[in-house]
Amino acid sequence: MAECCFIHFSRGDVSHRVRASTLHAGESHTENVELLNPVNLALQCTWTGNQNKLPNITGFWRKDGDEVENSRVTVQLEGDEYELKRVFSIVSEESLGSYSCVFGSEAKIEFVLAAPQIGEVRDKPIVSYVGDSVVIACKMEETKPKPGSWNWYKANGTDKEQIFVVAEPLRYEIKNEERKTKLVVHNLTEADGGLYYCGAVYAISTTMGHVELKVISFQEPLKPFIAIVIEVIVLVAAILLYEKSQSKKNYTEGSNRETQGENNGPEGSSSTRQRKI
Amino acid sequence: MVDGKRRSSVESPLDGGGWSWVIVGCCFMVTVCTRAVTRCISIFFVEFQTHFGADYATTSWIHSLVDCTTMLCAPIGSLVGNRWSCRVAVMLGGLLSSFGLLLSSFSTSLELLYLTMGVLTGLGFSLCYTPSIAMVGCYFRRRRALAYGVAMSGSGIGTLVLAPVVQLLIESYSWRGALLVLSAFVANLCVCGALLRPIGRRDSEEEESVEEEKPGLVSTRDAELAVKLPKDWDGRLEPVPVPVPGSPAPQAQRGRCFSSCFLSGQERKLLPDFLVLAVSFLFLASGCSLPFVYLVPYALSVGVRPQQAAFLMSILGVLDIVGNITFGWLTDRRCLKPYLLTSYVVAVAMEGLCCLLAPLLRSFSLLVPFAVVYGYFDGAYVALIPVVTADVVGARYLSSALGVVYFLHAIPYLISPPIGGWLVDLTGSYTATFFLSGVSLLSSAVVIAAITGIRRCRRPPAPRASSSPPTVRPIGGSQSLSSDRSD
């Protein structure tokens, strides 16, 4: 079981934080660290070692898979544990990523440093029609910190182009609330389809969520609609025509029987009444 | 055709003949297209909220409007069905509701949706609902409860099937396209309407059924029941002119407008029974919708996980269907047939008891049996409402009576969920809401039981006489509120 403790203290105008994690033999572990502002972050790893408790082992730090320069140190066995600690200066988006402390070649703890992620991502595309307007929304969960502001981007090939309402005020509208944002696109065309990104802006970086927009023409739902309507018309016509042909047949038969039936009628009813009482 | 029908129905009652089950199938489809579609409207809410920037309360009005309009305009449905024919009513309703949904798919504001989806579609549904249910009653005698059970199960089965389909439609075509396709689906009501073949002239059908009843009553029922029949007739004697083909006019005129014309002698005798039934239905409608609305929030508040809470709703839905069909079949059994009203009272009372016990159930494993029992008896009483009504008013007035019955459901359906919500906000727990629901349901059961008991104790010693020889009124079952129970 890995335990973790969290200490927060400020010194000056840059706050220091210590994030610690303890690893027992034969395990690897990942910690998610959420950061809002630039910070000097101290990462501390403690390892209880394996069967052969060597007095010294080499420990180093990795960032995103590459070894951090000058991070290789010799770790002494102290009180049955090895400890690695390093302070990293996290100032911008490039500093975020995956940091790992490695003991020899055996134990590793990974710290994933990131800004708050947008949790509820709609995986199905939003569908809308040519000429209609569509509302695309993004939301940051209540449990996560509020973003400073929101930006919207449209995917252009592999790039993202930011959407500025000022440039095209008739087509785009952005409505921002603290935790929600809405992009309204008017007068849709087929070219408007594709991936849209909403960016939650924090001091340290902007986290992205994406939504896909599909623009279809009105003919698409019209096909099943017309198919079902034709089926209804055909069935109704068939039933009514069948009934008409049946009634014509019965009419010719019935008029023959009626003359016989009427003689029996009144007698029949009186006899049933007598049977009743 | 009239003659051919008469002959065949004297030989074998309409009950269970091939065409009767087609009618049941039609009513099933009508229930699917009306009640199930109404329930599936709530799937559109999230889309409406995002598109129109509204909140949950404003969008949920659409569902309440459709439900309320369907019930409120039920008498119009029975009026149209009586005046012209069930076929005309259902086809007209199908066209209207389809048109309403079509207009909704082009709607540009929430208020327009209220009008097109809420009012127009609701009106169309109401034109279909009552006449088709009344039609089933006309075609069945012995197996009426089972037929109604199968027909009413359409709302449950329809919801189960339509909900994922509507979800798929929304994902593929967005809510506009989904409403368009749904409007075409609802147009199938016209097909159902076309199949609701009028039995000759509808009024002469009643006279025919009177004639059929006579041999039917003697030959198909048990000897002991036949002996008890004179006692049954005490409450129902009135002169009925001998039906002669071509002159049913006076009865027909009176039968046509139950609510608008003023009540004749035979209708006046029906009125007390029907009033009791009406009052009990008012209580019933006040209590029955609350658990459906508040079960999930209550489960979540006692710590049940969201997936488990959703599972509870599914249990309710499935047991609803099971209750519809099995309880209908059960009450048609010979041993239970005389106790139809008792079975109905028992079903409603059981529901009421469940609701009263609900606040004591504070875990998922305890709420599952609640959902099972409540769902089963909810399906049970829904299937029995038309049967009990038919028993009390007879087949002739069934259509009009059903219109009034469903009309009485409208306002309680509309106001009881908000009142329940207000109680939750006021007291901070769901106990009061479930208590209200339980008490309403129990009062509904008690009203019928008490009045029946009082009537039995105060049965007049001499039969109410009439000068002409007594003829049987078209009573469907063998039990009514005012007469002796044939034990």
TrEMBL record, chain A:
Key words of the record: Disulfide bond, Glycoprotein, Immunoglobulin domain, Membrane, Transmembrane, Transmembrane helix
Family annotation (PROSITE patterns): IG_LIKE
Q: Where in the cell is it found?
A: Membrane
Segments of this protein annotated with the region Disordered:
248-277
Looking at the record, the residues that make up the Ig-like domain are 41-101, 116-217
One Pfam entry for this protein is Ig_3
Tell me the Gene Ontology biological-process terms attached to this UniProt entry.
Answer: cell-cell adhesion
Query: What membrane topology is given?
Result: Single-pass type I membrane protein
Q: InterPro entries attached here? A: Cell_adhesion_signaling (IPR051275), Ig-like_dom (IPR007110), Ig-like_dom_sf (IPR036179), Ig-like_fold (IPR013783), Ig_sub (IPR003599)
| Annotated TM spans | 224-242
What Gene Ontology molecular-function terms does this entry list?
A: cell adhesion molecule binding
Compositional bias (Polar residues) spans? 261-277
Q: Which GO terms describe its cellular component?
A: cell-cell junction; plasma membrane
Q: Looking at the keywords, is Thylakoid present?
A: no
The molecule here is called Embigin
